[in-house]
Amino acid sequence: MQVTLVDRRNFHLFQPLLYQVATGVLSPANIAAPLRWIVERQANCEVLLGEVQSIDVTGRRVLVDGAALTYDTLIVAAGAHYSYFGHPEWEQLAPGLKTIENATEIRRRLLIAFELAERETDIVRRRMLLTFVIVGGGPTGVEMAGALAEIARHSLKHEFRHIDPADAQIVLVEAGERVLSSYPSDLSEKAQRSLERLGVTVRTRTMVADVAADHVVVNWGGGSERLPTQTVVWAAGVEASPLAKSLAAATGATIDRAGRLIVERDLSLPNHPEIFVLGDMANYSHQTGQPLPGVAPVAIQQGRFVAKLITNRLRGRSIPTFHYRELGNMATIGRSAAVADFGKLRFSGFVAWMLWLVVHLMNLVSFRNRLLVFIQWGWNYVTYDRSARLITGPPDAGAPTGSPSIELASPRSTEPPADNVT
After folding, report:
1. CB atoms within 10 A of CB 48
2. How far apart are CA 104 and CA 30, in angstroms?
């Protein structure tokens, strides 16, 4: 077999730990690895940097930046991005966590909020700057809220002179009845209690109605409320890559409300056994009647299955159907706090947290990354230090409209007052 891997990025990214980049625990290189390095010993695999523009199903060609690549078998796994429920303009004000750029931008906004609050003399505006709203109570939202609370209460504790970072208000907004709705109710309750112990305000049955540069409007219980804030993180709802719609138009396949392609039992598209769709782009509901969750274990198992299926075809063997093996769900809330659901076995607290650490370490793509992340986690556990708390890019880049500049004015005199050092 000759394998061609096409991606518009030159690296593989382990998305479940992106929130730790956004909160300064890890650097981007800790959770990413160059694609060419990953497959360097796989001589039959070619890596191409480029973006797929269209797919010619009849001619079995993929158009990549104007060049055509022919194929016998096509595997499409372009992932998903966050859905803003018909309000794409919210994305600039409330970035999600899907890329390294998202993570570093969120990190920049979080840290700049504390810097602006340090210089703000108006109490009302300072309170607004120190209010952080996270939209979505799934694993990403819960983990983000817990990490941000630890930053405010521990990592930044002695670093400011005019504000107490622990005064920061972290609000987690969830439209459903409880956080971690895909988990058993008892684990959801434990997760919420853990968040509240960290000082996070959890608002369930609350929907976002509007996002602006200096506030968020939420609806709950028949009424609405305006939450003054300049920093919003989006972790609610996803939709498949636009490539799914393009492929549906070319093949006649059906897409669901989330933009995912409905696939056959072997993950191929109807009437196109040579095209497979995996991961967050695929709606596979043959097993339980409901689509499989958009989590890493699903995509990993699907990738292994299709590899075996292609090998079986070449050897003339029978082709099996895909069956997802549920390995469990885990989410961490903060230091020594997590929940884990393994069916009949459920854990919370320190034991669940240790399991979460081990599983995520082992799923990183390289030993180097596992070692680096392990060292960083150990240092953070002992010292609460988050060494990657860097504000990158211009201070005002991407800041919501109306935000004050944090550039310092040039002094009027070259000689500062004797009792004041700037």
Report:
1. 14
2. 13
Within 8 A by CB and 6+ apart from 151, the residues are 23, 24, 110, 165, 386, 389
Strand, helix or coil for residue 86: coil
The residue among 280, 224, 227, 228 whose CA lies nearest residue 255 is: 280
Any idea how long the chain is? 422
Question: pLDDT band for position 380 (50/70/90)?
Answer: confident
Predicted confidence at residue 393, as pLDDT, reads 74
**For residues 376 and 25, is the Cβ–Cβ distance under 8 A?**
yes
Phi, psi of 386 (to 5 degrees): -115, 95
Strand order in the sheet with 207-211: 207-211, 215-220, 223-228
Q: Quickly list DSSP for 98-148.
A: SSHHHHHHHHHHHHHHHHHHHH---HHHHHHHTEEEEE--SHHHHHHHHHH
Which amino acid, residue 7?
D
Please give the domain boundaries of the chain with CATH numbers for all domains: 3-81+239-314 (3.50.50.60), 88-236+328-383 (3.50.50.100)
Note if the pTM is more than 0.85. Answer: yes
Active site residue 407: no
| Predicted confidence (pLDDT) per residue in 154-201, tens digit | 999 999 999 999 999 999 999 999 999 989 999 999 999 999 999 999
* C-alpha triplet 418, 421, 422: angle, nearest 5°: 135
Which residues, in sequence order, are bridge partners of residue 52? 64
Residue from 143, 174, 239, 264 carrying the catalytic annotation: 143
d(CA 417, CA 170): 39
Confidence of residue 407 (pLDDT cuts 50, 70, 90): very low
Return mean pLDDT, the chain: 90
> Which residues 6+ apart lie within 8 Å of 339 measured at CB?
180, 183, 187, 188, 190, 191, 330, 331, 333, 346, 347, 348, 352
Write down the pLDDT at residue 382.
Answer: 85
